[in-house]
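Task card 7
Instruction: Convert sequence to structure tokens.
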Amino acid sequence: MTTADLHTLTGAYAVHALPDGEREEFERHIADCPACAQEVRELTATATRLALAVSVAPPPQMREAVLRRIGTVRQEPPAVARQERRGAAGLLGGARRLPRYVLAACLAGVVALGGVAVWQHQSADDARQRADRVEQQAAELSRVLAAPDAATATRKLDGGTTATVVVSRSLGKAAFLAAGMPTPAAGKTYELWFDDAGTMRPAGLMDPDATDQALVLDGRIENASGVGVTVEPAGGSQRPTSAPVAVVTFPEAAGV
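Output:
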């Protein structure tokens, strides 16, 4: 494969779509190509934002609350033309201010309600709080993925799962991205751990219902050499109660 061909593989590499041989060749290429390395970081951040756009579901009780109150809430009277114009401008202005992935999350919530378009005050507050949390998580994830010293390591696990860690030592943070994670048994969840010379330090919980996800590990890297994943009881554990299903060693800083 020519160097020109390798320059075109940044997108496929960012979404883990390269076969093993091409992936290894491309990884050797980006070690000496800062432009492609930067493009991979940016494309990975974008792909993560798109994934997060569909990863947020409304709480189950929201549908029940809306349907319960439909018969008791009076319909608003038609607004006059001026109010309609002002209302439309306000909605459009709000849409311009919100990031695309937050809007997508809100729309996904509406679709999940079966087309019901009645939003009560408390439900709307809950949705806004969830959207704010998603926005904060996505912003933190993007900082790690787009950091100038971000370094990436990918490992194929049993069953076809792909696990990727992205480390920024200047930020002291690491992100974990998984594709094709099998669903754990009922009452179980995946827990992440910093590997501190063989001692596991809690680093956050994964969503047991999501096969593809990306999140920033809780806490700072400090002296950790990698990240481990174990299956734990719902809610997590203070110490691992099972053997790791995966351990991914942190890569060296970009450019090292």
